[in-house]
Write the structure tokens for this entry.
Amino acid sequence: MLRSADTMTFFRAWLSNPLSVGAVAPSSKSLAYLMTTDLNPLNGPVLELGPGTGVFTDALIKRGVLEQDLTLVELESAFAKLLAARYPQATVLTQNAAYLVGPNPSGVSKYGVIVSGLPLLSLSPSTVVRILIRAFALSRNDAAFYQFTYGWRCPVPKAILERLDLQAIRIGTVFSNLPPASVYKIVRNTIAKG
């Protein structure tokens, strides 16, 4: 069950900037479970893009990822304040995921996993490309980028995947989420073929 304060924070952020939030309701725990189903503490450190109220963050911690191994990148200041208070050992960055500075903003060597709650379908193709380039540049060669979507296909267009030599693998769909959402794992082609 979502915390009522989180729901209010979410809806205030959504009312002030619906395109930035990109969802009509916070992600469900079922979606968070599917987003993190492949993950364990050995995958870390984790870069989380657009964590919002922290539903995926909570799921990561339940999977055994240490709070200090989390870097949370959140553009909405209300969400960033909530995250910083809730996860004091995590690194919380209030900035645009398309413009992450490197080599790594939190000082870790390379991320093993990227979990994204960003509304990729509402972003321009050039912004999606920048986000993927930066996220993979900050990550190990075997890193995976987990993304959910309310659409019927991968939120990263095939042309962008091909241009960046990436492959998307559909993990599953959560019909109980509002609205229903599918999860994709995006990896470098060299990893997918290996």
